[in-house]
Design a protein that fits this description.
Two copies of one chain form a homodimer.
Chain A (H helix, E strand, L loop, with lengths): L7 H8 L3 H8 L7 H14 L5 H7 L7 E6 L5 H16 L3 E6 L4 H13 L5 E3 L11 H5 L4 E4 L9 E5 L1 H14 L5 E4 L6 H16 L9 E2 L5 H12 L7 E4 L2 H13 L9 E6 L3 H4 L5 E4 L2 H18 L6 E4 L2 E3 L17 E3 L5
Parallel strand pairs in A: 1-2, 1-3, 3-4, 4-5, 5-11, 6-7, 6-8, 8-9, 9-10
Antiparallel strand pairs in A: 10-12, 12-13
Chain A binds a DNA duplex (30 and 30 nucleotides) through α2 and α4.
Pfam families (chains A, B): LacI, Peripla_BP_3
Organism (chains A, B): Rhizobium phaseoli
Keywords (chains A, B): DNA-binding, Repressor, Transcription, Transcription regulation
Chain lengths: 356, 356
DNA sequence: TGACATAATTGGAACGTTCCAAATATTTAT
DNA sequence: ATAAATATTTGGAACGTTCCAATTATGTCA
């Protein structure tokens, strides 16, 4: 269609000024006379000018591309979708746009998309690293002065900022809640023991148990894949135990759903005959029957916060690696046997304050 | 950190060739000698060169930016999340990256993000337009030779490609299925009557009813907001009818869930006492109790297909506005009373072939 | 060996912007 | 009215790549 795009020079000619002046108004410089600014703007509108960020960026030596990269491992999981929405909100209102990619837990894919994003000149990256991500993987980025914020899963050795939810406090409050309901034998179900998140949640479980004056028994923690199927498997083992537990905190909501399935298969009604608490508060948690009592981590909030952190670092020019642990709250619904709650996503909620 | 980025010239010097040669190997040209190619590649790796697409793009006169824009109205809705994943899959393997933005149904937001994407030089756009989007809104884009593919909702007057699911055939098959189960009075519940999607689905309902040899009664179609609450409202009205229906097809899954709620509030068990069928097959549909019989639209497939279409147009250089209607299939689960199905997302499924 | 084809390489110029130093226009103060 | 200050505007020269036309190296054929 249009042969040649409208450039700053076209505007300059049409407005009777120099390209430099046009550039100045583009940048909102206070140096230009109000009259000329108005005229230039008018001409721009008239000719349908569109700013070429690529060119601008080229000159400005990488400083500010107005693009941030976001990579998650499973957009299909509503947890990450919400996270992305949170990022988008703050990033968008700062005039940035987000490159969003999905790795499906594939580390090769992750490398590819990060490389691609880099070629496109992102000025920052928010990433929920795929399973086997090496801490050194983001070294080149930070070496190039591109701030990186790791979310959800933390990356031990890497010198990047990170923001994770307070797994420990969350699990602890879940256990305390169950203990408060009179449960004496509370199991910890699901999750792979070789991950940092598992360690944190287990630690929280342990502190909760001890804080409630109960004994910590190793046989009450049974690991399994962090999936629905894993939950079925885990509850099966737990129920076969000598002194069987009467309640369980689960590694995440998927496991919790599986636990409910397994319970029902044994003619036990979750909530009534056995209390179960999840972790994450995925959307299905409130619609399920029974509605799942769970620890809500507010993924959208994490996204927003991560984005703010990233923007701060982008603007500061230098990236101080900083770590924040976000608050988490227990949402009491039905599956713990504490009774129904009226308002959907609310209910009795225990907010857990967080350190630095 | 690193003062100055590594450029093609640095590579050229280090490898003892000219920048032109380096450029050639960058583009995989067959003109360069294998030996030099290898050496250049080695040097690039050694110096940690990263390609600057912005610069390249500048020279190549807008032709190919390797960026596609994707805008959806609600990423939080798993329907759109899956769509985005579908787009990402094909786009990624074609070496593109996607700008993904969320409009939350705000048309201003939509305008902003599209403008921003344009400044960044996207070479194509996939958009699920916000509610009140004007057909003329994408005119400038196509005028600039940037192909646009509209998905999910179609945009009547716009001369852009679009891809929507076969609402009519889907609804028709749902009705036929219910009729096959012996239902004589089947209601059409939920949705706003002023939208194209509603019209299509209603038309499908009507054809289904007639194809089954039943009479079409206007009082059996009750509109309402396309939400869970709307479903409750609609089933309330439907049940108050003189000759009350024994089954219903719903505008979408949210409505269907609401219908189930409303049924239960009246001590009627969905599936057993009243058959309900949804539309969309959102993830919750299979996990719900009873599992929802619904028309599956495969959002990820739409995403993939839309992306393919877009890439084709980008490569072709010229955009023939083309319209495709994607196949849809009825997934029979429990809520229609046809009995339980063993495998999760499968069950008896009726694939509906689609025209052009 | 010379003439010619072919393979491989190469130096600018260009893409659309921003930056800089310098030029010009306008005020202000004397 | 003139110097000094201030407000505005302006030509290049970059930024890192690709393209083009032209050059040089290598091979082939008689």
């Amino acid at each position: 269609m249009t042969k040649t795009r409208v450039t700053v020079i076209d505007i300059a000619n049409a407005a009777g000024v120099s390209k430099s002046t046009v550039s100045l108004v583009l940048q909102g410089s206070s140096l230009v006379n109000e009259g000329t600014r108005a005229k230039v703007n008018a001409v721009m509108r008239e000719l349908g000018y569109v700013y070429n960020r690529g060119a601008a960026n080229l000159r400005q030596a990488g400083a500010k591309s107005k693009i941030v990269g976001v990579v998650v491992n499973d957009l299909t999981n509503s947890f990450f979708a919400e996270l992305a929405v949170g990022v988008d909100m703050v990033v968008q209102s700062a005039g940035f746009v987000q490159f969003l990619s999905n790795t499906s837990e594939s580390i090769d894919r992750q490398r590819e998309v990060v490389a691609s994003m880099r070629e496109h000149g992102i000025s920052g990256l928010i990433v929920s690293p795929a399973r086997a991500t090496d801490a050194a993987d983001f070294k080149p980025l930070v070496a190039a002065g591109i701030p990186v914020v790791v979310v959800v899963r933390n990356l031990p050795g890497a010198k990047v900022s990170s923001i994770v939810s307070d797994n420990q406090a969350g699990m602890m409050s879940a256990v305390k809640h169950l203990a408060g309901l009179g449960h004496k034998r509370i199991a910890f179900l699901g999750g792979f023991p070789d991950t940092a998140v598992f360690d944190d949640r287990l630690a929280g479980y342990r502190s909760g148990v001890e804080a409630a004056g109960l004994d910590y028994h190793e046989d009450l923690v049974v690991s399994s894949p962090p999936s629905r199927a894993g939950g079925v498997e885990a509850i099966g083992k737990a129920i076969a135990l000598g002194r069987r537990p009467t309640a369980a905190v689960c590694f995440n909501d998927a496991v919790a759903f599986g636990v409910c399935d397994g319970l029902r298969a044994r003619r036990l009604e979750p909530g009534a005959d056995f209390a179960v608490v999840g972790f994450d508060d995925v959307i299905e948690a409130q619609a399920a029957v029974p509605a799942l009592t769970t620890v809500s981590v507010d993924p959208q909030g994490i996204g927003r916060r991560g984005a703010q952190m990233l923007l701060k670092q982008i603007n500061a020019g230098k990236a101080e690696a900083e770590t924040v642990v976000t608050a988490v709250r227990l949402v009491v619904r039905e599956s713990c046997g504490a009774g129904k709650t009226a308002p959907a996503r609310t209910g009795k909620s225990v907010k857990i304050e967080t350190g630095r």
